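Priority: low. Protein: Response regulator. Input follows.
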Amino acid sequence: MRVVIAEDNALLREGLVLLLTSSGHEVAGVAATGPEVLPLLLEHRPDVAVLDVRMPPGFRDEGLRAALAAREQLPDLPVLVLSQYVEETYAAELLGGGARGVGYLLKDRVGRVDEFLDALERVAAGGTALDPEVVTELLSRRRDDPLDSLTPREREVLELMAQGHDNGTIARSMVVTERAVHKHIGNVFLKLGLPPSDSGGHRRVLAVLAYLDA
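Result:
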């Protein structure tokens, strides 16, 4: 898998390069400032881009803006965004419009190597990977709505769905059968008024995210 990395912190940037190359991936290019990102992505057209949200010169949203601009010209470009904190506006903008192949992780997640690599591969394959803390923030914004009618189990299933996990992974995480997960998902969709679609896991995640961001 060919990867482009955009990260201004030299230690983290080199750590990502080492992690990815030692895991059998190719780092096609690296960027340390916002203006470098878009030309680099257009030149290399990687299988996935790993981008910091805030980069020089302004340390505001240069990385995210570059990611959005790149996806306008390369609509199928998978993008995994890294951020120091949960920034809901950025997450919502990246995930808006029925986007495929997107992820939003906190930088602390990089230290959990297996989780990070799993998220990266999921995004590269066209799926979705949301940091659990981002999902929690989105859930906590909703008040006095159908989310209140979910049981603790259904809410746990919803959080895992929104992170991008499939039924098998959810079942293993909750130590239940896939049949039980299927039933919980049906109840969640029914209570939230969302169309069920077990055949399209990504569409399922986007439906949930659209609801949470409404």
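The radius of gyration is 17 Å. The beta strands are 2-6, 26-31, 48-52, 79-83, 102-106, 128-130.
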